[in-house]
Design a protein that fits this description.
401 residues; Coagulation Factor XIII, Chain A, domain 1; five-stranded mixed sheet
């Protein structure tokens, strides 16, 4: 592998490789590295310009993960690149100097298409800032091959050089340059013992999540969830909820039950079955397979009668006690419906965004006449329920001043 100086070293090594042949073809000719420019260029010159860098097709899929699960570096990351060069040839056209230089370059790169270690070492000696390059130690040697460009492709390439006249040119590709970072990997301790485990891969599948009381019963705080699916039982079966692994109450192959934890927030939630296996010496639990993510809606509950008071900034502040807590960043909307229902009127507040994990929130609502109103709260799309008396909605309710 090579460090970050490899690209510049390849370009510099081209000068060492081509200069003898160029000087022999046209006396006093030199190899340069400027941006293509034909203006007032009378001295014989072969200009080498790196115009494009692309990922190497053969090596781009060879990279393996370089980080362990804990984030530590297991091996140095590498990048495989192809370098695309444009050679332009300058000199006296009456003496065919550009064409003689072209012939010298093509002949040299055909007879010696691979950069030798000596070419690279000479380039490092010629340019002091390349002393720390380690391209010479790269296992894969850099090989040059001519690039077949059509007249249209050449025209597009030259069009990017603003207000520069076309000069006799040829394109070559250098492959492959393997760049590697200077990071130092942390070596893992040697393996003391090896264990081999053989098992059948049976990933769990969750079909649906409902209340244990019935599929039509809303899920609220305190509900026992019934998780239905296939292959749910493992050596150790856990339920992943809001990023935490939780132990279920009962586990069977087609269903799992778990009492809804009190720290799970209202709204649309995702649930997974996680199966772990005991492996190693001594045996410890390791992550095995996971199910698909199954959604369910946890409804908020207004756990105490709401209160209302006139707000100093206008409108009315309605204070609600919620179960479960509303989480940071969750959005709550207050909805009021007048009582009695014979004179319907409905009001909706602007969204309230929670700045703390709390069981009590105060939402300001404007334009609501005094009177008694049914109260509902919607948290991230999950709406609280109303209770009925004699078949009529009655609670929770609030008296607006």
């Amino acid at each position: 592998m090579s460090n970050s100086l490899a690209i510049a070293t390849v370009t510099a090594a081209l000068q060492d490789l081509l200069q003898p042949a160029v000087s022999q073809a046209v006396g006093q000719a030199k190899v340069g590295f400027s941006r293509p420019d034909s203006s007032n260029q009378q001295a014989p010159l072969v200009n080498v310009y790196l115009y494009q860098v692309t990922p190497n097709a053969a090596f781009r899929n060879n990279d393996v993960p370089t980080r362990r699960p804990d984030g530590s570096l297991s091996q140095r990351p590498q990048t495989a690149l192809d370098l695309h060069y444009l050679f332009t040839f300058h000199g006296n056209d009456d003496q065919f100097e550009p064409q003689r230089l072209l012939g010298a370059v093509v002949t040299t790169l055909t007879s010696q298409p691979v950069l030798s270690r000596q070419n690279i070492v000479n380039a490092m000696n010629n340019f002091s800032f390349l002393k720390k390059s380690n391209l010479a130690d790269q296992v894969e040697r850099v090989r040059f091959t001519p690039t077949s460009l059509s007249l249209e492709e050449f025209s597009k390439l030259w069009s990017v050089f603003f207000q520069i006249e076309y000069s006799l040119s040829a394109a070559f590709q250098a492959s492959v340059v393997l760049l590697e970072s200077d990071d130092t990997p942390l070596d893992a301790l040697p393996v003391l013992a090896r264990n081999i485990y053989v098992g059948t891969l049976r990933p769990p599948t969750v079909d649906r999540v409902i209340s244990q009381a019935g599929p039509d019963v809303p899920i609220e705080a305190g509900t026992t969830l019934l998780i239905q699916g296939q292959q749910l039982r493992g050596d150790t079966t856990l339920v992943l909820l809001e990023g935490q692994e939780r132990t279920p109450a009962t586990v069977a192959d087609t269903q799992v039950t778990i009492a809804l934890p009190t720290d799970v927030h209202a709204g649309v939630q995702g649930l997974q079955i996680v199966q772990k296996k005991k492996i190693g010496t001594p045996e410890t639990l390791h992550r095995g397979v996971e199910s698909n993510v199954a959604p369910f809606v946890l409804r908020p509950v207004i756990s105490a009668p709401p209160t209302a008071a006139a707000a100093a900034t206008g409108g009315t502040d309605v204070t609600l006690q919620l179960t479960p807590n509303i989480g940071i960043g969750q959005r709550a909307v207050l909805m009021l419906n007048s009582l009695p229902a014979a004179a319907p009127a409905a009001f909706v507040s602007l969204p309230f965004v929670a700045t703390a994990d709390t069981a009590q929130i105060t939402i300001n609502i404007k334009g609501v006449p005094s009177g008694k109103y049914l109260v509902r709260v919607q948290i991230d799309g999950a709406e609280s329920r109303l209770t009925t008396t004699a078949g009529v909605f009655s609670d929770p309710a609030v008296q607006m001043p």
